[in-house]
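Please fill in the sequence for the structure shown.

STRUCTURE ENCODING:
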């Protein structure tokens, strides 16, 4: 049965560190070190310090390496990636969809308008969809009036995209007023 590798062991196999460096000479950089040395000598220097020789730029001539603790390096990379993902999630704007028909009652309009206001105050966008059926499709003026009536009940909004007819629907995207 094949042994499963930890994520650190997989990363070590993929990374160019220690004996995986094929060049005969490398430029070793560090806090107080910046020299071109033989690869074997650089690996010995790293092992003496209890760290790894990690190739940072393989395309340079000679390749640029750094003496660091590879496990800590991986941990820092994961931590930075996690932080970046968290920022991306926080800055993401969701679009919530609210559907209604032209024959919607006044009480229902007020309830939906209140819900839309909560969504807009939360920083998200709202996609308004008014669906028409049967004869309603032929009464565009009436449907446009009902859509405007619905929007009159929503306060503090701007259009992200103006109302437009698409088939048997009227679509508009609202965002919070700046």
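FILLED IN BY: designer on duty
SEQUENCE:
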């Amino acid at each position: 049965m094949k042994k499963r590798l930890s994520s650190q062991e997989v990363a070590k196999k993929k990374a160019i560190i220690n004996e995986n460096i094929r060049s005969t000479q490398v430029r070793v950089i560090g806090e107080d070190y910046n020299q071109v040395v033989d690869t074997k000598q650089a690996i010995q220097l790293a092992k003496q310090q209890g760290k790894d020789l990690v190739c940072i730029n393989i395309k340079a001539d000679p390749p640029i390496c750094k003496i660091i603790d590879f496990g800590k390096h991986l941990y820092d990379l994961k931590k930075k990636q996690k932080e970046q993902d968290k920022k991306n999630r926080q800055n993401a704007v969701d679009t919530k969809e609210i559907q209604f028909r032209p024959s919607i009652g006044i009480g229902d309009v007020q309830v939906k308008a209140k819900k839309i206001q909560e969504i807009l105050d939360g920083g998200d966008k709202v996609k308004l969809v008014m669906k028409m059926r049967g004869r309603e499709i032929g009464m565009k003026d009436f449907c446009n009036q009902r859509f405007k009536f619905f929007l009159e009940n929503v306060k503090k909004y701007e259009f992200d995209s103006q109302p437009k007819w698409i088939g048997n629907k009227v679509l508009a995207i609202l965002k919070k007023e700046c």
